[in-house]
What does this fold into?
Amino acid sequence: MTLPLPKPLNSKPILDALAGKVLPRPPVWLMRQAGRYLPEYRELRATSDSFMHFCFSPDLASRATLQPIERFGFDAAILFSDILVIPEALGQKVSFEQGEGPRLQPIGDAAGLSRLHDQIDLKLLEPVFETIDRVKGELPDAVAFIGFCGAPWTVASYMIAGKGTPDQAPARLFAYRYPELFEKLIGKLVSASIDYLVRQIAAGVEIVQIFDSWAGVLPGPAFRKWSLEPILKIAQGVKAKCPDARIIAFPRGVATHLMEFLDCVDIDALGLNTSDNTRWVAQYIQGRKTVQGNLDPLVLLTGGDSLESEVRRILYELSAGPFIFNLGHGILPSTPIEHVEKMLRVIRG
Ligand code: CP3
It folds into this structure.
């Protein structure tokens, strides 16, 4: 009888990068890599008239997750879902109007808050775990699988405004006016996020990314209380139950708060946003933490020489330390496929 050869410790480049290794070329994936810039996604999406229905269909969501892997061979797949499945599973209905983004019944006061369930309804999220189960059997060995959730502050900002806003003024006002009520909401989201991520990991993802897309609108004390502390608690809660899981945090746009964030929160990698200074990051952050980022999605959309020189600059500035190539925010729906191909040629050499 021949025994199978043991696999190398990490057969997946992203896991090596998350372990702090510096690789000859950085692994790469893109935020929102499954989405409308892909013709095959638009075709699949057209088979369902509701985006939430799409997210809760294991057949459609698993195919959407795999599409960018099949086309580009990225080093990681990210679960196809949305950060707003958490409000839905807490009893706040979510819908997406064509071309207008998310719509929820806004939470304006204590009565609105009291309509939420005490705990997240994980049964409602069963299709997400089923999606993970299907995808994990289809992924090539070297491709890592990333799950995710929105950070409590970002998710709460949509729950309070009931939609996207340019600066999350409704949630900031709510947090300043009613800090005790807001604390209850954030606490509920912390527990819900831990339960949700632990179940994603049990179903088969190896890495989870916590998207705090709106962390950058908060002043220092509010940033600590509503962004940093909740993410810290989620990271602790997840690591306590799943010590092998890897965590990437993306506190977008927090500039000089990044250092304090790293001092406090135990994560495996820090997602950089478009405007983070890569030279400063190389000098002060990469010595202690793997970073991920941060090509401007608008440069990817532009293409041409500016794309090539920006990709080369980022590679030059960040490749000496542990690094995962990504965008500084999600890929834009009008991005040409050829630009993604060109970006990959430059990265892969
Ligand atoms: O990265 C991936 O490929 C996985 C899928 C993913 C989606 N949303 C699919 C999606 C992920 C990781 C998200 C995260 C998400 N969703 C965030 C955090 C990251 C960020 O971009 O800041 C936020 C804030 C949301 C909330 C959300 N979902 C908004 C504001 C919108 C409308 C804007 C838009 O792009 O249309 C969505 C819809 C959404 N989520 C789409 C997709 C593919 C587009 C809807 C469609 O295809 O019809």
